[in-house]
Amino acid sequence: MSTYDLVVIGGGINGAGIARDAAGRGLKVLLCEKDDLAQHTSSASTKLIHGGLRYLEHYDFMLVRHALLEREVLLKAAPHIIWPMRFILPHHKALRPRWLIRLGLFLYDNIGGRKLLPGSHGVDLTTHETGEALKKEFTNGFEYSDCWVQDARLVTLNVMDAAERGCDVRIRTECTDIIRGDGQWQVKLTSHLTKQAETIDAKAIVNASGPWVTKTLDLDEEHDSRYATRLVKGSHVVVPKLFDHPYTYIFQNADNRILFAVPYETDYTLLGTTDVEINSEPGTEQIETKEIEYICKNASEYFEKNISPESVVWTYSGVRPLYDDASDNASKVTRDYKLDLDTRKGAPILSVYGGKITTYRKLAEQAVDMLKPELGFTADDWTAPVPLPGGDIPNADFDKFLAHCVTRFPWMDDALRLDYARNYGTRINNVLGDATSMDTLGHHFGGPLYQVEVEYLINHEWARTAQDILWRRSKKGLHTPKDCEQTLQLWIDEHFDFS
Q1: CA of 201: how far to CAs of 4, 7, 188, 376, 407, in Å?
Q2: Taking the alpha carbons of 11, 13, 14, 17 in that order, is the dihedral positive or negative?
Q3: Residue of 206, 157, 193, 198 whose CA lies nearest to 31
Q4: Could you tell me the pLDDT band of residue 267, with boundaries at 50, 70 and 90?
Q5: Which of 174, 171, 236 is closest to 465 using CA atoms?
Q6: What is the pTM of this model?
């Protein structure tokens, strides 16, 4: 029977970050995920690394500060999948007064030690390019900075780094039982690929199973958790692009929520999100018609062009496992996190409640620090200055790196070269292998998808299905023929055996 220092249950952003941090401190770590990496909450975000401007209204000043500090750490760690973005907040005269927004942006500029990103200022929407797409009644607004992230890739890169530091990664492997002993755990794992079960020993467990955090704890008949989660569904819609500039809009809604309109995958606009509290089993959630109508209606309040549900080309939904702070409104529930450490019988289990993608690295650092006295290691935190795989771009200068790629791979289609540089950074060489022309990229599945990328994702990033490739490791499902998913799955089944 194998013995690990730490078993991390859950392959979302928190589990991935904790596994990476712990493996880098010399612990023998196993990470298990019952489905694909980032299959649920962590691939269903609005794709932003941000402080959370709206959280200032809920007086979550420390959360905003910590998120803003992390924003710049992550920007330097992964400049290929995270990049700066300017946001436009049109002033809606019937909602918040201008002075309140200006005050909020002043705080946003100054409480997080901003160094890399430009500050905020007012904009005249009658002359600024972002005003063209808006209704003429919106004449003034504000501009500020945050960042974009390819969220599912952020999870995968953390797991890749963990694996390269010795972590045993088990995807599509479910933790089906945990038994507390004196000084250690027995953990039963069942592979959905091979149908095989095994039991391993672990000195400690991290329960980072997101919406299933309570269900995982219930496997331990002796557990006594002090915390609870509230499951809040957030949905997004994708429509053909509504504007031709690189800015993102943040709209105020009459219900005190906000809506983002983000340039997405070149040809589209991403609109979201909703807050719908659920009580059903997570993992099968889908957008409801009323959510689509809500998003389209609120976006149409601002855009000159009416956005109808019929224009929606794709949707996605995810469940946020928010720490239950007893708020009476789902949109007001804190996005901060709680870490609960149970050390009874000398068998520690640390459960993660809540959190947001921007603060995952700090959460991981704190979680591993809490396990120090229990596991008896002394290594300190190390992740802040260390780039993620592909992110070791000199001076985090992506534009210069891209120019280098143009020189090195002049034979590549411009859009495909940019796509590979963005997704894989300095590991673009690993993807391309010996390819020297477009003809040597292997089988062309349609659109921007070629065999070399498919094989790389299967061999190095744990992709196992067409959906893993088209909708999580990339969003090429939006750019390939409608039958591509079926064709790709048949090709994978013919060339790979994961059993």
Answers
A1: 6, 9, 9, 17, 51
A2: positive
A3: 206
A4: very high
A5: 171
A6: 0.96
